[in-house]
Amino acid sequence: MGSLVREWVGFQQFPAATQEKLIEFFGKLKQKDMNSMTVLVLGKGGVGKSSTVNSLIGEQVVRVSPFQAEGLRPVMVSRTMGGFTINIIDTPGLVEAGYVNHQALELIKGFLVNRTIDVLLYVDRLDVYRVDELDKQVVIAITQTFGKEIWCKTLLVLTHAQFSPPDELSYETFSSKRSDELLKTIRAGSKMRKQEFEDSAIAVVYAENSGRCSKNDKDEKALPNGEAWIPNLVKAITDVATNQRKAIHVDAAALEHHHHHH
User: Of 201, 164, 194, 195, nearest to 179 (Cα)?
Assistant: First the structure.
């Protein structure tokens, strides 16, 4: 598990406005005695998990190739800056040939033994028009693997956010419709009661990882609504990390009774 904690070089690549915001968010975490934070990234293949990790770190830390199967094992990227360490765990896609890849989930869980997950980024694409049964199966599988408490520590991240919805829909309408559909699916798949689900209100953040992403007047990568998405995402991550819910600790015992799949 020797993941190298390196000085966060990519941080210098961010525009000044973004750097200031990130320093402020991490400062708030340190005030709450959190000197490090671990973020787990899950989702189907091809939704932009690795690209989002690269954007967050500001470095090409995970290889992304459109012509190559994704990495087959989880990768932890750790960066430290001013006494604060961020760990981001990129993972293989959870779907293989139209089915949930339970093997991938077991691998991920094994990798996480004795680690604590502060935030789950559940990643999907904004520019997709429907949610299907497979999405629900993925949520069910994540819930079985980590317990439904994980959804109280989750952010929904929708990538490919810089796109134009079909003519009759405004960007706002389309994006809220898409995120609502996915949130309903998470609620159904996690079997959380309505009240319970509303209490743990999962925030939605939009991401645009392509190099063609527009910039705002502070040179920050911005979405169609003008918001700088990287600091937005980091703020949302720190909000979840410090919410009232307990972080998810993956213990070895939890692995033992989990071999009833297939």
Answer: 201
